[in-house]
Amino acid sequence: MPVISFANAKGGAGKTTAALLLATEVAERGKSVTLFDADPQRWISTWSDLPGRPGNIQVISETTPASITEQIMDAAARSDYVIVDLEGTENLIVANTLSVSDLVVIPIQGSSMDARGGAKILNLIKKLEKIVRHDIKHCVVLTRTNAAVTTRALKAVQENLAVAGIDVLLTPIVERAAYRDLFDFGGGLRSQDTRMVSNLDKAKENAEMFAAEILERAMVSPRRRWYDIFKKVS
């Protein structure tokens, strides 16, 4: 089923938060998720060891450049969704994962440094498309935005993406305490206590809208046919 990867060549862009929000939102809809933690920081793995991890989310943290493609194919055969949190560098694990992804999501904060990291992934996608001979669907999600203020740097990033014709989600991921708390206390947004977390309802609404946009874009493409054939003969 759909393989959705999160990548930015700059660390700290918010990709781990975005990947975890999507995984927990999909799990809340009753779908099974295999979540690959391919980031050396291992924040997803740390989260999975906390109480409250949904039973329909499996976390895999042991990957290698040689094994990642087959691991993803195996997971896609048994899970409704496969989500991959990639590390903040350009390497073979990143390249192999992007080449078999149905959707690549590039999280970018409102800064030129994040934009440059995102541009490296966009350039890598272009190179991989020539190698695998098919389009790799991709989009940008703006992360850690301020719900009340749009900064000058963020406006500049938005304008540059628009000029470049890059698909940008209408829903940015707003900076919320509830998202940080996931990594401290585990579970998903619906397991948090409204008495302990400020603006939890707004955080839930933001996450739901973000997930809806991603899932709409992540429809399995026709190339999955050769993906399945490769799986059968490998």
Automatic annotation (TrEMBL):
It holds the Pfam family VirC1. It comes from the Bacteria. CDD domains: ParAB_family. This is AAA family ATPase.
